[in-house]
Write a structure and sequence with these properties.
3 strands, 8 helices, 2 domains, 182 residues, single chain, alpha+beta
Length: 182
């Protein structure tokens, strides 16, 4: 299955919408993990990131299957630039294509939908906690031994990440709820 098809089904499994680039990357990270799909994730500033997923999203936008809107959140960064969130939504054409892809890939589609249900059932968490959860999972999968919270906070800087213990505990709770603790 192509990354673009996987992403289309991911959108569909989350009701056709995903708010924020970080949220998109992390939700798709967990969907890929739980559906057994390698989407090319590696370490990045905000946690595991896939250029393939970003490219697939750009393709879906250029083909007008996904529309992007930018919402200013009213805050500015250290340089005075407004912080904005990029939200994504399937277009009517995207919804039709997702239905076609569900028929073409029934087994993969079922796995993606089941994974999305687990994520939703785990409770609404913010994109930052989702990001920490993805970082925690990535760290856990890179080590062959059992790690403590303290171990993980010490390992995180090797990937350029800073993770607080409280954030990490919430993230591990989320990972447990979705069955993603290695």
């Amino acid at each position: 299955m192509r990354t673009r098809d996987f992403l289309l089904l991911a959108y569909d499994s989350f009701g056709g919408e995903i708010d924020g680039k970080t949220n998109l990357q992390k939700k798709v990270y967990f969907l890929g993990l739980m559906a057994g799909q390698d989407l090319g994730y590696g370490p990045h500033y905000y946690g595991p990131y896939s250029e393939r997923v970003a490219d697939a999203n750009a393709q879906l936008k250029s083909l007008e299957y996904v529309e992007e809107s930018i919402a200013g959140v009213g805050d500015s960064d250290a340089f005075g630039f407004e912080i904005a969130r990029h939200d994504f939504k399937l277009t009517d054409g995207g919804k039709i294509l997702a239905k076609i892809k569900r028929s073409k890939y029934p087994e993969e589609s079922r796995k993606i939908e089941e994974a999305a249900k687990k994520i939703r059932k785990a409770g609404e968490i913010g994109y930052m906690t989702l990001s920490v959860a993805a970082k925690a999972h990535f760290i856990l999968t890179q080590n062959s031994r059992k790690l403590t919270v303290e171990d993980m906070t010490e390992i995180a800087p090797r990937f350029g990440w800073t993770i607080g213990e409280d954030d990490l505990k919430r993230a591990i709770d989320f990972l447990s709820k979705i069955g993603a603790v290695p």
